[in-house]
Design goal:
This protein is an alpha/beta fold. The protein has one domain: Rossmann fold (3-Layer(aba) Sandwich). Helices cover 44% and strands 15% of the residues. A three-stranded parallel beta sheet has the order 1-2-3, with helices on both faces. Strands 4-5 form a two-stranded antiparallel sheet. Helix 1 (2-16) crosses helix 6. It is globular and about 45 Å long. The protein starts with a helix and ends with a helix. Bound molecules: flavin mononucleotide. Flavin mononucleotide is lined by residues 1-2, 68-72, 100-103, 133.
Length: 175
């Protein structure tokens, strides 16, 4: 369900107008399960995928992670993509668009926040949570129909993400 949800959010971000957007599809990126010899903090990357991933993340100032909830946790592909790098995540604000069943993915977001703070990221409070996501997806058309409050939550999250991204710029500059 991630792609239609992400496409909806990208449209919200375009409308918001304060960000240049790079959409990263982890399925397309297809990072293998992390098995590098060195801790990423050393930035001694030995394979081209890790080098390319590091360069891409280094070039970005803020993130919005779109994730389902699997067993009260974020998608393993997201945690794997986070584990690949360290310095490149530092001092970057992050918001979440989560989806799932009853919880709308909020438990997954709480779990992901622990990883983010370990990477010196700043996860923000404002978020979009989408419960019972399947009911809002048209599988044939591949589209997600948001409720009005989802649009409002997205706009509030983007406003706050912009504030944090601006405030953290001096720390990013010194890293
Ligand atoms: C293995 C598995 C575990 C799940 N665990 C949860 C859960 O803990 N909480 C929840 O709200 N939904 C849970 N769900 C429902 C998923 O969040 C929902 O099916 C979502 O659409 C999955 O995302 P995806 O379609 O992008 O894979 C689970 C689904 C699967 C397949």
């Amino acid at each position: 369900m991630g792609l239609p949800v992400a496409e909806w959010f990208v449209e919200q971000a375009r409308r918001h107008g304060r960000f240049e957007i790079d959409v990263i599809d982890l399925k397309e990126l297809s990072l293998p399960l992390f098995a590098e010899r060195q801790h990423p903090r050393l930035q001694q990357y030995e394979n081209d995928q890790q080098k390319a991933w590091g360069a891409r993340v280094a070039g970005l100032d803020a993130f919005v992670f779109v994730t389902p909830e699997y067993n009260y946790s974020p998608a393993p592909s997201l945690l794997n993509a986070l584990d690949y790098l360290y310095v490149e995540w530092h001092y970057k604000a992050a918001g979440f668009v989560s989806y799932g069943g009853l919880s709308g993915g909020i438990r997954a977001v709480q779990v992901a926040k622990q990883t983010l703070t370990t990477l010196k990221m700043v996860p923000i409070v404002e978020a979009v949570a989408i419960p019972f996501v399947a009911q809002a997806i048209d599988r044939a058309a591949g589209t997600f129909t948001a409720a009005g409050h989802h649009d409002t939550s997205a706009a509030q999250m983007l406003d706050e993400l912009f504030r944090w991204t601006t405030a953290l710029a001096s720390l990013r500059g010194s890293s």
